[in-house]
Amino acid sequence: MMNKLFATDAPRATILIRLMVGLVFLSEGIQKFLLPAELGVGRFVKLGVPAPETLAPLVGITEIACGCLMILGLATRIASLPLLGVMTGAFIFTRIPDFLKNGFWSGLHGGRTDFSMSLGLLFLLIVGAGSWSLDAKLGKNK
Question: What is the pTM assigned to this prediction?
Answer without folding.
Answer: 0.94
